[in-house]
Design brief:
Largest sheet: 6 strands, mixed
CATH superfamily of the largest domain: P-loop containing nucleotide triphosphate hydrolases
CATH class of the largest domain: Alpha Beta
Helix content: 25-40%
Structural class: alpha/beta
Strand order of the largest sheet: 6-7-8-3-9-10
Number of helices: 13
């Protein structure tokens, strides 16, 4: 029974990262020691990182610059090897079975430098299509599909050097999709894109994961936390090379804090009565009161535990004092709040 369960789990996990650590050694260390030159200590980019990505899942990785996101992406893509631990893609080890892994993944990096700047966008994709083993007719058919998908037809014959930064990024994602890989590794896929192009890219990513004929597993890194929350089924938070938490965006926000900020806009011809009633029912530090544009419009701010009855009590007190409620807004914690929490407290883990 255990063997069946293990095999089922391996089959359902498109990517598995197990105890991966990566330390970059000091270059020319012996020579520097011999010459008694000063040198910085080795850089520990990743430390004992473990997680699994289910087939068809959009899995996000967030963290500040230098946290280890790009290093981890490159390890999964076989571009660099871990110092310790292992990673697999569809059951193939990224070190021992690197060729098979490369057939299963498509990588689009945030800073793409491997395109040929004198070739056109179409010629670049034709070149890389041949490396993927696509024949001439199949390659042109696939490239045409991708150009239509990314609305790139007008730029197909423009040299890569002439493309904007955003269009270079779109071309990198298109190249990653050339061979229809089951796993996509997208390092900041909407970086440098204008809002319309970014929205279309997000829709493309979402559709790939929802395709019934060929669901694609997507590993996504981004500094756009709203984008991560919109797209990702689960998110991992990485800080200083360590995974601090893994969960759905909603659960990460919920476990971060139960506090919610509540904003109540109301009108009152006798705001002193409303304020007096609030002070009688609640402490002075419980709320702040600000005048809005217009003499009788006011904004009340306070915090509460998520889902408690404080808001009902506040509204009742205001209405009994003669105030008229205009709007109620509840500001819940964001992924940025969660990320800042882990950065401020290195020992925090979920």
């Amino acid at each position: 029974m255990k063997n069946i369960t293990l095999e089922s789990k391996l089959a359902s996990d498109a990517v598995s990262v197990n105890g991966v650590s990566k330390t970059y050694p000091v270059p020319f260390l012996r020579l520097k020691k011999l010459l008694r030159r000063k040198f910085k200590p080795p850089v520990e980019a990743l430390r004992d990182v473990s997680f699994n990505i289910r087939a068809g899942e959009i899995f996000g990785l967030i963290g500040p610059n230098g946290a280890g996101k790009t290093t981890l992406t490159k390890i999964i893509a076989t571009l660099i090897q871990p110092t310790e631990g292992s990673a697999t893609v569809n059951g193939h080890d990224t070190v021992r079975d690197d060729e098979r892994v490369r057939r299963n993944v498509g990588l689009a990096g945030a800073e793409e430098r491997s395109f040929y700047w004198r070739l056109t966008a179409e010629e670049n994709l034709l070149f890389f299509a041949r490396l993927y083993g696509l024949s001439g007719s199949d390659a042109r058919r696939r490239i045409q599909e991708l150009f239509q998908l990314f609305e790139f037809d007008e730029l197909a014959r423009r040299r890569f050097a002439e493309l904007s930064t955003g269009n270079k990024q779109r071309l990198a994602v298109a190249r990653a999709m050339l061979a229809n890989p089951p796993v996509l590794l997208l390092d900041e896929p909407t970086r440098s894109l204008d809002p319309i192009a970014a929205a279309r890219m997000r829709e493309t990513i979402r559709s790939l994961a929802q395709d019934k004929d060929q669901r694609v597993t997507i590993f996504l890194t981004s500094h756009n936390l709203a984008e991560v929350e919109e797209l990702c089924d689960r998110v991992a938070i990485i800080s200083k090379g360590e995974i601090r938490a893994i969960d759905s965006p909603a659960n990460l926000r919920a476990t971060h804090t139960q506090q919610e900020e509540v904003l109540v806009e109301f009108t009152s011809l006798a705001v002193a009565d409303a304020e007096h009633a609030l002070r009688q029912s609640f402490s002075d530090r419980f709320f702040t009161l600000e005048r809005r544009s217009g003499g009788s419009q006011w904004l009340l701010k306070f915090s509460r535990e998520a889902g408690d009855e404080t808001l009902d009590s506040v509204l009742r007190v205001l209405q009994q004092s003669g105030a008229v409620i205009r709007s109620v807004e509840i500001e819940r914690p964001t992924l940025l709040d969660v990320l800042e929490r882990y950065e401020k407290d290195p020992d925090t883990r979920e």
